[in-house]
Amino acid sequence: MQHAIELDALRTKIGAAAAPMAEAVSACVHCGFCLPACPTYVELGEEMDSPRGRIVLMKEVLEGNLDLEEALGHIDPCLGCMSCVTACPSGVEYGELLMPFRELAEGSRRRSLLDRLWRGLMLDSLASPSRLRWMLRLGRLAAPFRGSLRALLPARLSAPLDLLPRSADRAEVQFGTFPAVGERRARVALLAGCAQQVLAPRIHQATIEVLTRRGVEVVVPREEACCGSLAFHAGDARRARASAGALMQIFRSGGLLADVDAVLTNAAGCGSGLKEYGLLFAGRPEEEAARTLAAKVRDVSTFLATLESEAPPPLPEPLRVAYHDACHLAHAQSERAAPRRLLARVPNLTLVEPRDWQICCGSAGIYNLEEPELATRLGRRKAETLLEGEPDVIATGNIGCLTQIESHLRRLGSGVPVRHTMEILASAQGPS
Length: 432
Description:
alpha/beta
């Protein structure tokens, strides 16, 4: 049974995003295919904690039949993983409903002063490499007292301590232009990212090595800004537009966008957010520029899979790699094949396919900081599932997933390393 919503009334509340929101509501036939794909429904077993249940709740709020605060208890725990989009046979674009609804909710909901301050601190720190470095230093000083702090502080405030990397990555992200090795086959811009360039800058270096060795010239803008994806996926569209606008200006002012074949990202969450710029700026003067940039965005694995290249030399020892699908790559960007194809071409490497691949690990931007209890349940589930295949290493394409899974492997007493797909490919290429 379809559930339509009055479009004209919705436009007065939402503006340009009203039409896709109304389409998402009316397209849902409540068939239930999304239920086993939804992490929160799998964990909680409640209809209102499923995509189709949340669609009903959002519709009721938008039509004025339900108070926003009554609905948020079920909508806030949604990870925005878009697993339901992959599972849906009716083509419901759930993200085009959830993202504008969260923006609307942020402008109307009642948050405490402490909640607003904490949330702003997390979003601003993760989007700023310099701030995040200071936060990590403070966190490492507090790490020996983690147990005592966990007992004293609410889970939300102690959660960041559990996600600290095992050790500091002392590499630094390099900016500038990196020439192709041999004949140049393409020229790309690579986003350095925000949190990733602090938490795991080695990923950035590995990505450049893989690209240049395959004939790709790489440009890393020196004045790069945050793309705004973390804030957008958390419902803070004001912060997201400020960051996205600065990034678009960087590409526009130097003519860089027109001078590259693609804009690449090696963080699935960033790639997903960049591709959603049209939704973020819908009905605004920047919409055309936003859509132009979004049209050139590719995940690095997607781009590399289109390039013919020689297989790397065989690995010296057999390597079992369990590949974890980052939700914002597999579901939001519909890309599962490319990273597997790239890894499968490495001689002596065996891919291990974990069960329940579609279930989120619980990272989801700042979700594991905002909803730490449910995120912990999902993180443990994912870590245990990945270990079932007895891998030598776990691969993924997103820094959030990497950090979350590594944290829960540590809690399980496992020493299996978690690496970005590009790190494994760079290692397989051998020394440059």
